[in-house]
Inverse folding.
């Protein structure tokens, strides 16, 4: 009987050791392993990407663990081509890691064709360019016999070229025919003697 009691005592120790190992393993699993396996992704604050170039915006999002998708591109007279106009979710919103931010980017200004203004009076040329969504700037003027004063001799960019809306077209104007020297002053300068 003493032998049986000793066996039961040893078995009790082994049961307690086994239960201790099970409890330590369960504790470590619940506190260390389970949070790693079932961890909720951290939330990150979505940065303000409006007015940034698309490549810079994508880099910023990647560094934060977010993805970028260009959902649309629209014409914009206020933003350069490939700059971010809108974003979803909005700046300051909390988003899960690996979530997606949708971006709307600028296509730039609409392109317009430079109309032909050569031979037109400056005011006509100015209005023609204005109607086409362009600006006019007089760069130079010169005396030309075949063109009246204020007629457009040429434009840069030339007619037919495609440029961004609101671009400036440089105009070269005629001053008209070159004035002749005053005949009275000419006579006094070169007096003619009769023989």
């Amino acid at each position: 009987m003493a032998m049986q009691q000793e066996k039961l005592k040893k078995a009790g120790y082994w049961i307690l050791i086994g239960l201790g190992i099970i409890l330590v393993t369960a504790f470590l699993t619940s506190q260390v392993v389970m949070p790693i396996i079932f961890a909720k992704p951290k939330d990150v604050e979505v940065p303000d990407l409006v007015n940034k170039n698309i490549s810079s915006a994508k880099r910023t999002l990647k560094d934060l663990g977010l993805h970028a998708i260009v959902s649309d591109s629209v014409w914009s007279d206020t933003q350069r081509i490939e700059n971010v106009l809108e974003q979803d979710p909005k700046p300051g919103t909390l988003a899960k890691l690996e979530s997606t931010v949708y971006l709307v980017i600028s296509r730039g200004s609409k392109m317009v064709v430079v109309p032909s203004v050569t031979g037109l009076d400056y005011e006509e040329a100015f209005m023609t360019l204005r109607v086409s969504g362009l600006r006019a700037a007089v760069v130079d003027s010169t005396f030309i016999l075949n063109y009246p004063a204020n007629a457009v001799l040429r434009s840069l960019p030339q007619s037919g070229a495609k440029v961004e809306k609101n671009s400036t077209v440089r105009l070269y104007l005629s001053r008209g025919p070159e004035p002749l020297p005053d005949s009275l002053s000419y006579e006094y300068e070169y007096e003619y003697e009769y023989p």
Summary: The domain at 43-108 is CATH 3.30.10.20 (Trypsin Inhibitor V; Chain A).
